Amino acid sequence: MSVVSTFAGNSLLHQNGSFEPQRKSNYAIVIAGIPGADKITLYTATAKIPATGVTKGKIKHFNETMHYAGSVMPFESLTLVFNDYLDVSGGASTLKMISDWYKQVVCFKNGAIGFAKDYKKQGEIFLLPPGMPNAACPGAVSAAAYKNRRFILQGVWPEKFEYDELSMDDTGEQPARFTLNLSIDRGIPADMM
Fold first, then answer.
1. Radius of gyration of the chain (CA)
2. In the chain, is it the N or the C terminus that has fewer CB atoms within a 10 Å radius of its CB?
């Protein structure tokens, strides 16, 4: 009797395997309706997909506790960290488009808060396979085949913006970064919709 399963490593081999690990760096975040762009793909240094969950209720029954599904937990904010790139061509930079979007949420000149219908947007996080998005590469795959490898973001708006700490002692080896926290009403895997 063999203690090693035939499933063990063979399924990961290129020649006859059917599994491919999802790379943490193969993703794209797309937000629709940001000022200055119909759709924008955000190229972030890091991003954390919001967790989903359900609260747990409990009922005591004699010496036991039974659990049941309570309500949907509020979704955590989506935290994005960007490398700050200057657009020397004169086009709208990511920082400029995000700033214009943030102005829809709050006007810092007078403290007025905008209307949710104007600042709440829709978006998606795509988990891309190797070979994406460059379809010219050998072994490239169709995005349509991976349409369920995504998260649907509803009611997205910028709630907090923070720029990196600046320092004259910096060697310039790393670009400046800024962090954007996006509030979301829902962040659900597409295959759970």
1. 22
2. N
